[in-house]
Amino acid sequence: MSGERFERAMGIMRRLRGPGGCPWDAEQGHDSLKRYLIEECYEVVEAIDKRDDPLLREELGDLLLQPLFHAAIAEERGAFTIDDVLDTLADKLVRRHPHVFGDQEIRTSDEQVANWEKIKKEEKGEERKSALSGVPPHMPALMKAQKITEKAARVGFDWEHTDQVYAKVLEELHELEETMASRDQERMEAELGDLLFAIVNLGRFLAVNPEEALRKTIDRFSARFGHVEETLHSRGIQLKDATLEEMEALWDEAKTLESRP
Prior knowledge:
The protein has 261 residues and is mainly α.
Protein backbone atom coordinates (compact mmCIF):
# COMPACT_ATOMS: atom_id res chain seq x y z
CA MET A 1 0.00 0.00 0.00
CA SER A 2 2.88 2.42 0.70
CA GLY A 3 3.97 2.22 -2.94
CA GLU A 4 0.46 3.05 -4.14
CA ARG A 5 0.26 6.04 -1.84
CA PHE A 6 3.65 7.25 -2.99
CA GLU A 7 2.65 6.95 -6.64
CA ARG A 8 -0.60 8.80 -5.91
CA ALA A 9 1.32 11.69 -4.32
CA MET A 10 3.76 11.84 -7.25
CA GLY A 11 0.85 11.71 -9.69
CA ILE A 12 -0.78 14.68 -7.97
CA MET A 13 2.50 16.58 -8.18
CA ARG A 14 2.73 15.93 -11.92
CA ARG A 15 -0.87 17.02 -12.34
CA LEU A 16 -0.24 20.27 -10.50
CA ARG A 17 2.72 20.98 -12.80
CA GLY A 18 0.92 19.91 -15.97
CA PRO A 19 -1.53 21.61 -18.35
CA GLY A 20 -4.61 22.86 -16.52
CA GLY A 21 -2.81 22.49 -13.20
CA CYS A 22 -1.81 25.11 -10.66
CA PRO A 23 -0.13 28.24 -12.09
CA TRP A 24 2.03 28.73 -8.99
CA ASP A 25 3.27 25.12 -8.96
CA ALA A 26 3.96 25.26 -12.69
CA GLU A 27 6.08 28.39 -12.33
CA GLN A 28 8.43 26.98 -9.71
CA GLY A 29 11.98 25.84 -10.39
CA HIS A 30 14.80 24.37 -8.32
CA ASP A 31 16.06 27.80 -7.27
CA SER A 32 12.69 29.25 -6.26
CA LEU A 33 11.97 26.21 -4.08
CA LYS A 34 15.17 26.38 -2.02
CA ARG A 35 13.66 28.60 0.66
CA TYR A 36 10.69 26.27 1.11
CA LEU A 37 12.92 23.23 1.54
CA ILE A 38 14.78 24.99 4.36
CA GLU A 39 11.57 26.28 5.96
CA GLU A 40 9.97 22.83 5.95
CA CYS A 41 13.03 21.32 7.65
CA TYR A 42 12.72 23.79 10.51
CA GLU A 43 8.98 23.18 10.82
CA VAL A 44 9.67 19.45 11.20
CA VAL A 45 12.18 20.26 13.95
CA GLU A 46 9.56 22.41 15.68
CA ALA A 47 7.03 19.55 15.58
CA ILE A 48 9.62 17.18 17.06
CA ASP A 49 10.36 19.62 19.88
CA LYS A 50 6.66 19.95 20.64
CA ARG A 51 6.30 16.14 20.81
CA ASP A 52 3.19 16.65 18.67
CA ASP A 53 2.68 13.51 16.57
CA PRO A 54 -0.22 14.79 14.43
CA LEU A 55 1.77 17.94 13.65
CA LEU A 56 4.91 15.90 12.96
CA ARG A 57 2.95 13.69 10.56
CA GLU A 58 1.73 16.77 8.70
CA GLU A 59 5.12 18.49 8.62
CA LEU A 60 6.89 15.36 7.39
CA GLY A 61 4.41 15.31 4.54
CA ASP A 62 5.17 18.93 3.74
CA LEU A 63 8.87 18.12 3.79
CA LEU A 64 8.36 15.09 1.54
CA LEU A 65 6.60 17.35 -0.95
CA GLN A 66 9.90 19.09 -1.66
CA PRO A 67 11.75 16.03 -3.07
CA LEU A 68 8.65 15.18 -5.12
CA PHE A 69 8.57 18.74 -6.44
CA HIS A 70 12.25 18.76 -7.40
CA ALA A 71 12.00 15.30 -8.94
CA ALA A 72 9.01 16.38 -11.05
CA ILE A 73 10.95 19.40 -12.34
CA ALA A 74 14.00 17.24 -13.11
CA GLU A 75 11.76 14.69 -14.86
CA GLU A 76 10.39 17.42 -17.13
CA ARG A 77 13.97 18.34 -18.05
CA GLY A 78 14.81 14.72 -18.75
CA ALA A 79 17.47 14.81 -16.02
CA PHE A 80 16.19 12.11 -13.63
CA THR A 81 12.99 10.76 -12.08
CA ILE A 82 11.82 10.09 -8.55
CA ASP A 83 12.59 6.41 -9.19
CA ASP A 84 16.20 7.36 -9.90
CA VAL A 85 16.29 9.28 -6.62
CA LEU A 86 14.98 6.29 -4.67
CA ASP A 87 17.34 3.86 -6.41
CA THR A 88 20.31 6.11 -5.70
CA LEU A 89 19.31 6.36 -2.05
CA ALA A 90 18.77 2.61 -1.64
CA ASP A 91 22.07 1.77 -3.32
CA LYS A 92 23.90 4.29 -1.14
CA LEU A 93 22.39 2.92 2.08
CA VAL A 94 23.45 -0.62 1.18
CA ARG A 95 26.92 0.46 0.06
CA ARG A 96 27.58 2.52 3.18
CA HIS A 97 26.41 -0.18 5.60
CA PRO A 98 28.68 -3.12 4.71
CA HIS A 99 28.37 -4.39 8.28
CA VAL A 100 24.64 -4.89 7.72
CA PHE A 101 24.47 -5.89 4.06
CA GLY A 102 27.93 -7.43 3.82
CA ASP A 103 30.48 -9.25 5.94
CA GLN A 104 32.33 -6.29 7.47
CA GLU A 105 32.35 -6.10 11.27
CA ILE A 106 31.60 -2.78 12.99
CA ARG A 107 30.97 -2.68 16.74
CA THR A 108 30.38 0.96 17.66
CA SER A 109 28.72 4.11 16.31
CA ASP A 110 32.12 5.84 16.12
CA GLU A 111 33.48 3.04 13.95
CA GLN A 112 30.46 3.37 11.68
CA VAL A 113 30.90 7.14 11.33
CA ALA A 114 34.57 6.67 10.42
CA ASN A 115 33.74 3.93 7.94
CA TRP A 116 30.91 6.01 6.41
CA GLU A 117 33.36 8.88 5.82
CA LYS A 118 35.93 6.49 4.35
CA ILE A 119 33.37 5.09 1.90
CA LYS A 120 32.21 8.61 0.97
CA LYS A 121 35.79 9.61 0.21
CA GLU A 122 36.26 6.55 -1.98
CA GLU A 123 33.02 7.32 -3.81
CA LYS A 124 33.99 10.93 -4.48
CA GLY A 125 37.45 10.06 -5.73
CA GLU A 126 39.55 13.17 -6.25
CA GLU A 127 36.64 15.58 -5.96
CA ARG A 128 37.31 16.23 -2.29
CA LYS A 129 40.97 17.02 -1.76
CA SER A 130 40.58 18.54 1.71
CA ALA A 131 39.58 16.78 4.91
CA LEU A 132 37.13 19.67 5.38
CA SER A 133 35.41 19.25 2.03
CA GLY A 134 31.77 18.31 1.77
CA VAL A 135 30.31 20.90 4.15
CA PRO A 136 27.44 22.80 2.49
CA PRO A 137 28.43 26.49 2.14
CA HIS A 138 24.96 27.76 3.06
CA MET A 139 24.63 25.72 6.26
CA PRO A 140 23.87 27.89 9.33
CA ALA A 141 27.13 29.13 10.83
CA LEU A 142 26.96 27.26 14.14
CA MET A 143 26.10 23.99 12.40
CA LYS A 144 28.82 24.58 9.82
CA ALA A 145 31.40 25.28 12.53
CA GLN A 146 30.45 22.06 14.31
CA LYS A 147 30.73 20.06 11.09
CA ILE A 148 34.12 21.59 10.28
CA THR A 149 35.54 20.84 13.73
CA GLU A 150 34.22 17.26 13.58
CA LYS A 151 35.98 16.71 10.26
CA ALA A 152 39.23 18.20 11.55
CA ALA A 153 39.03 16.01 14.66
CA ARG A 154 38.70 12.85 12.57
CA VAL A 155 42.17 13.42 11.12
CA GLY A 156 43.70 14.15 14.53
CA PHE A 157 43.57 17.96 14.54
CA ASP A 158 41.91 18.32 17.92
CA TRP A 159 42.41 18.88 21.63
CA GLU A 160 42.77 15.95 24.00
CA HIS A 161 40.78 17.19 27.00
CA THR A 162 37.77 19.40 27.67
CA ASP A 163 39.86 21.59 29.99
CA GLN A 164 42.02 22.58 27.03
CA VAL A 165 39.00 23.68 25.04
CA TYR A 166 37.60 25.63 27.98
CA ALA A 167 40.96 27.38 28.35
CA LYS A 168 40.78 28.29 24.66
CA VAL A 169 37.33 29.84 25.20
CA LEU A 170 38.72 31.97 28.05
CA GLU A 171 41.69 32.96 25.90
CA GLU A 172 39.44 34.07 23.05
CA LEU A 173 37.20 35.95 25.47
CA HIS A 174 40.24 37.81 26.82
CA GLU A 175 41.40 38.66 23.28
CA LEU A 176 37.94 40.01 22.46
CA GLU A 177 38.03 42.12 25.61
CA GLU A 178 41.39 43.58 24.61
CA THR A 179 40.16 44.32 21.11
CA MET A 180 37.03 46.07 22.40
CA ALA A 181 39.25 48.76 23.92
CA SER A 182 40.59 49.59 20.46
CA ARG A 183 37.09 49.96 18.96
CA ASP A 184 38.46 48.40 15.77
CA GLN A 185 35.31 46.97 14.19
CA GLU A 186 37.09 44.52 11.90
CA ARG A 187 39.24 43.12 14.70
CA MET A 188 36.26 42.87 17.05
CA GLU A 189 34.36 40.92 14.42
CA ALA A 190 37.30 38.54 13.99
CA GLU A 191 37.74 38.00 17.73
CA LEU A 192 34.02 37.49 18.29
CA GLY A 193 34.08 34.88 15.51
CA ASP A 194 37.05 33.16 17.17
CA LEU A 195 35.17 33.10 20.47
CA LEU A 196 32.05 31.60 18.89
CA PHE A 197 34.16 28.98 17.10
CA ALA A 198 35.86 28.02 20.37
CA ILE A 199 32.46 27.72 22.07
CA VAL A 200 31.27 25.40 19.30
CA ASN A 201 34.30 23.22 19.96
CA LEU A 202 33.52 23.21 23.68
CA GLY A 203 29.97 22.12 22.89
CA ARG A 204 31.36 19.22 20.86
CA PHE A 205 33.51 18.07 23.80
CA LEU A 206 30.52 18.38 26.14
CA ALA A 207 28.29 16.47 23.67
CA VAL A 208 26.05 19.55 23.48
CA ASN A 209 24.78 20.62 20.06
CA PRO A 210 25.46 24.40 19.91
CA GLU A 211 22.70 25.05 17.38
CA GLU A 212 20.16 23.28 19.60
CA ALA A 213 21.49 24.97 22.73
CA LEU A 214 21.21 28.44 21.23
CA ARG A 215 17.78 27.75 19.76
CA LYS A 216 16.46 26.62 23.14
CA THR A 217 17.95 29.69 24.80
CA ILE A 218 16.18 31.87 22.22
CA ASP A 219 12.92 30.07 22.99
CA ARG A 220 13.39 30.65 26.72
CA PHE A 221 14.20 34.30 26.16
CA SER A 222 11.11 34.75 23.99
CA ALA A 223 8.85 33.05 26.56
CA ARG A 224 10.21 35.13 29.44
CA PHE A 225 9.97 38.34 27.44
CA GLY A 226 6.41 37.40 26.53
CA HIS A 227 5.62 37.09 30.25
CA VAL A 228 7.05 40.56 30.84
CA GLU A 229 4.96 42.03 28.02
CA GLU A 230 1.72 40.29 29.01
CA THR A 231 2.04 41.17 32.70
CA LEU A 232 2.78 44.81 32.00
CA HIS A 233 -0.14 44.94 29.57
CA SER A 234 -2.46 43.46 32.21
CA ARG A 235 -1.40 46.29 34.51
CA GLY A 236 -2.12 48.90 31.87
CA ILE A 237 1.57 49.68 31.33
CA GLN A 238 3.12 50.00 27.88
CA LEU A 239 6.46 48.25 27.47
CA LYS A 240 8.17 51.50 26.48
CA ASP A 241 6.89 53.17 29.66
CA ALA A 242 8.08 50.45 32.06
CA THR A 243 11.27 50.89 34.04
CA LEU A 244 14.16 48.48 33.67
CA GLU A 245 13.66 47.47 37.32
CA GLU A 246 10.02 46.51 36.61
CA MET A 247 11.00 44.47 33.59
CA GLU A 248 13.83 42.69 35.43
CA ALA A 249 11.49 41.80 38.31
CA LEU A 250 8.99 40.26 35.88
CA TRP A 251 11.85 38.49 34.08
CA ASP A 252 12.92 36.86 37.35
CA GLU A 253 9.28 35.95 37.99
CA ALA A 254 9.11 34.22 34.61
CA LYS A 255 12.26 32.23 35.45
CA THR A 256 10.69 31.13 38.73
CA LEU A 257 7.52 30.03 36.97
CA GLU A 258 9.61 27.92 34.56
CA SER A 259 11.10 25.91 37.41
CA ARG A 260 7.71 24.98 38.86
CA PRO A 261 6.44 21.46 38.06
